[in-house]
Write a structure and sequence with these properties.
By secondary structure, the chain is α+β, with helices and mostly antiparallel strands. It has three domains: about 120 residues, Roll (DNA Polymerase III, Chain A, domain 2), CATH 3.10.150; about 130 residues, DNA Polymerase III, subunit A, domain 2 (DNA Polymerase III, Chain A, domain 2, Roll), CATH 3.10.150.10; about 110 residues, DNA Polymerase III, Chain A, domain 2 (Roll), CATH 3.10.150. The chain contains six helices and 25 strands. Strand 8 and strand 9 form a beta hairpin. The longest helix is centred in the N-terminal third of the chain and has 12 residues. It is elongated and about 80 Å long.
Length: about 375
């Protein structure tokens, strides 16, 4: 194999694929990226961790000899990063070595044979639909902070996607909070299986979306695999296994009878919680909210660091009471609320609270209270 490629093109491609590769691998080939040069002048680069696979095609300056080789993903990425701007990079494979040349720099890297490189077998992906990249980005941002990191509850380690009537819904929960985002059901998604997209796939997908926010993404899925295609045949393809588990019926925890309505400005609410939580410790992450007519008093009491309190103006006319929340969880939700009002629908100090911008907003949050 021998090919020449612009440094900027190579670097952009490697930045997409190398992040899939785990830093520590017991299987040497999984530390490598597969590079295939074709006679039509394109280079295909691929990386996998056996659960997630990313493939990208790019145009080479020239392909002198078609062929394929695998080489350390992180090493090649670090080299490409440090090469001079505007340089052309020559990649030549021979005798189990890859020679990388650019300007006066020359590297020889060990390689492993292409035939040892594993691929995810996609099988049949019967459901196929398109979604705007910006819609997928909003869906991820609105829900992914609530994904559980507890490995024992593996079925909560991702975003749950499912179709109900005329909408596509995404949900994530860790048992303390729930985030749900609703989109109109895209054509082709009707009758799709309920799927749980793993946390790592969500993170890689979000990175890829950043560079393609004004495009459409093709999504193909089955009950066990999902594939995201960016930019047609010459773009990036991300394929992932799905979590094999059953997501709990989260609708049961969305409160419907919370009759106390609190409205306030999400930005000043976020900043107020952030300020009083400064003195909170790991044990006392709770911020207490005392609700009174037209105001909320936020307070934190820490046995080590003293006390803090702040009063915020609010639209509230129900009976006064006190409730506590985990300050970080509350801030995670408030940071997703756009606009100048947030609604909290409350019942009592022990019941889950519903949080949203208004009844028309696509995002909805449920937060469990803490004892304070």
């Amino acid at each position: 194999m021998k090919a020449t490629i612009e440094r900027a093109t190579l670097l952009r491609c490697l930045s997409h694929v190398q992040s899939v590769v785990e830093r520590r691998n017991t299987i040497p080939i999984l530390s490598n990226v597969l590079i295939e040069a074709a006679a039509d002048g394109t280079l295909r680069v691929m990386a996998t961790d056996l659960d997630l696979q990313v493939v990208e095609r790019m145009q080479a300056v020239s392909v002198e000899a078609p062929g394929a080789i695998t080489v350390s993903a992180h090493l090649l990425f670090d080299i490409a990063r440090k090469l001079q701007d505007g340089s052309q990079v020559s990649l030549a494979a021979a005798d189990n070595k890859l020679t990388v040349k650019a300007g006066r720099s020359r590297f020889q890297l060990p390689t492993l044979p292409r035939d040892d490189f594993p691929m995810i077998v996609e099988g049949d992906l019967p459901t196929s639909f398109e979604l705007g990249a910006s819609n997928i980005a909003q869906l991820i941002d609105a829900t992914r902070f609530a994904i559980s990191t507890e490995e024992t509850r593996y079925y909560l380690n991702g975003i749950f996607l499912h179709v109900t009537e005329d909408s596509l819904k995404a949900a994530a929960t860790d048992g303390h909070r729930l985030a749900r985002y609703t989109l109109p059901c895209p054509g082709g998604a009707e009758g799709m299986p309920d799927v749980i997209v793993p946390r790592k796939c969500v993170a890689e997908l979000r990175k890829l979306l950043e560079e393609a926010l004004d495009t459409k993404v093709l999504i193909d899925l089955s009950a066990s695999k999902i594939r995201f295609t960016f930019g047609g045949a010459s773009g990036v393809v991300l394929t992932s296994k799905l979590i094999d588990g059953t997501f709990p019926d989260y609708n049961r925890v969305i409160p419907t009878g919370n009759d106390k309505l609190l409205r306030l400005d999400p930005k000043s609410f976020y900043e107020g919680v952030d300020r009083v939580a400064t003195i909170a410790t790991e044990k006392t992450r709770a911020v207490k909210m005392a609700l009174e007519p037209d105001r909320v008093v936020l307070s934190v009491t820490s046995p080590d660091n003293g006390t803090a309190a702040e009063e915020l103006p609010a639209d509230y006319s129900a009976a006064g009471f006190e409730i506590g929340f985990n300050a970080n969880y509350l801030k995670d939700i408030l940071s997703q609320i756009e606009g100048d009002t947030v609604e909290l629908h409350l019942a009592d100090a022990g019941a889950p609270t519903l949080i949203r911008q208004n009844e028309k907003s696509p995002a909805l949050y449920v937060l469990m209270p803490m004892r304070v």
